Amino acid sequence: AQSVTQLDSHVSVSEGTPVLLRCNYSSSYSPSLFWYVQHPNKGLQLLLKYTSAATLVKGINGFEAEFKKSETSFHLTKPSAHMSDAAEYFCVVSALVTDSWGKLQFGAGTQVVVTP
Amino acid sequence: KAGVTQTPRYLIKTRGQQVTLSCSPISGHRSVSWYQQTPGQGLQFLFEYFSETQRNKGNFPGRFSGRQFSNSRSEMNVSTLELGDSALYLCASSLGGSSHQPQHFGDGTRLSIL
What we know:
The structure holds 2 protein chains of 2 kinds.
Chain A: E1 2-6, E2 10-14, E3 19-21, E4 23-27, E5 31-38, E6 44-50, E7 56-58, E8 64-68, E9 73-78, E10 87-95, E11 105-106, E12 110-115
Chain B: E1 5-7, E2 10-13, E3 19-24, E4 31-38, E5 42-50, E6 53-57, E7 64-68, E8 74-78, E9 87-94, E10 104-105, E11 109-113
Parallel strand pairs in B: 2-11
Antiparallel strand pairs in B: 1-3, 3-8, 4-5, 4-9, 5-6, 7-8, 9-10, 9-11
């Protein structure tokens, strides 16, 4: 079984300051981990993915995430927030087992607010 | 390369009706997954199709069904609509050979039940 916990439902940051979105996961198998972003009235856009290669993963728009197996965490960071980063962010796990074909397990989401 | 296309974008139905939603995947992608997104339950997996076969199914009643065509396009059908079926329905496509491959999402169909 697998699950994802996003530790903050809302995060508010000032423009130009760092962003940290926290995610812990649980998986019985070697997982793939993803971060997606969803802007209002839009679908989900892939920010980055971890698939058992480098533990520090760089994504689009200046985001990066670090996979820490010992802590079962996959936190998302960005050094400097931009107004356009205001959106909802989802941490997602996918297990490499045949009965999980096509099934992504989503966290509850973190709503990010960016203030000028 | 064109992204995932879902039609229609918005739909209003009444209780008891049925509805069909359509999803065209990215060219070359053979896997299509469907998700329901609601404020209360978040994002929940409905089912996944690969090469016209359903490989996986979530915990939804039989009123929710789907299919995939030979060109990988997929449809989702909901019969006997209930108020609780109001949601954003998202489809996502991937190459499908491995769960390591990321899924790419469409903008969804927002279904409102009156």
